[in-house]
């Protein structure tokens, strides 16, 4: 049967069970029924993986793994022991990939899973520490990227002050399009007279951390490497 392009309108007398498969593809009532039926499962299994997607938007290639990071960061380490998660990604066409990951049973201190889990506990804080700019400034940033795309040789301009400690950034592109990268030092950098939380997390100076604690009233664990708690 050829599809006419018009959504199938289910009459009040027609049960969903009586619908032909072809007539369910564009049926909004059927779609809503499935959404309502799966809501509890969605809230439990899928929603925890959408934190970064909701905050950042579509990142294309890294989107799937940003969802994995969101899921790991939202769970207690005990709840991750030995579980299996489904990883599903799809493009705008017909291509899609589905595979699963099984987490380790070892969640002891120093284990790979616990180390990975612990390293992601600052995700919400990092998202919250982003700097807001005006639409005009944002447009200027995008315009600069557009006009310099594929330029060679090229040396990017701009301040490194707002990059997280440890961030890799493009330093130079030579005339053969070979790229050189550098990493923001993991040290304490003052911004507007105060230390940012992210910088304190990567600072090994107890004295500097104590000063930050005085001005911010943020609890800090003064161990070998200063960490926010």
How would you characterize the overall build of this protein?
It comes from Trichonephila inaurata madagascariensis. InterPro entries: HMG_CoA_synt_C_dom (IPR013746), Thiolase-like (IPR016039). Residues 14-182 form the Hydroxymethylglutaryl-coenzyme A synthase C-terminal domain. The protein is an alpha+beta fold. The chain has helices at residues 28-37, 39-46, 51-56, 63-74, 77-80, 112-119, 123-128, 135-148, 197-201, 206-216, and strands at 84-90, 96-102, 168-173, 179-183, 190-191, 194-195, 220-221, 227-228. It has a two-stranded antiparallel sheet with strand order 1-2. Strands 3-4 form a two-stranded antiparallel sheet. Strands 5-6 form a two-stranded antiparallel ribbon. β3 and β4 (179-183) form a beta hairpin. The longest helix is centred in the middle third of the chain and has 14 residues, at 135-148. The chain is 37% helix and 14% strand. The relative contact order is 0.06. The termini are far apart. The chain contains ten helices and eight strands.
Map the helices and strands.
Blueprint: H1 28-37, H2 39-46, H3 51-56, H4 63-74, H5 77-80, E1 84-90, E2 96-102, H6 112-119, H7 123-128, H8 135-148, E3 168-173, E4 179-183, E5 190-191, E6 194-195, H9 197-201, H10 206-216, E7 220-221, E8 227-228
Antiparallel strand pairs: 1-2, 3-4, 5-6, 7-8
**What multimeric state do the chains show?**
single chain
Instruction: Assess the beta-strand content as a share of residues.
Output: 5-15%
Q: Look at the helices and sheets and give the structural class.
A: alpha+beta
General shape: extended
Order of neighbouring strands in the sheet with most strands: 1-2
Distance between the termini: 63 Å
| SSE topology string | HHHHHEEHHHEEEEHHEE
Strand tally: 8
Number of helical elements: 10
Mean pLDDT: 78
Low-confidence stretches: 1-13, 189-229
Instruction: Give a short account of the largest sheet.
Output: 2 strands, antiparallel
Rg on CA atoms, Å: 24 Å
User: Level of helix content?
Assistant: 25-40%
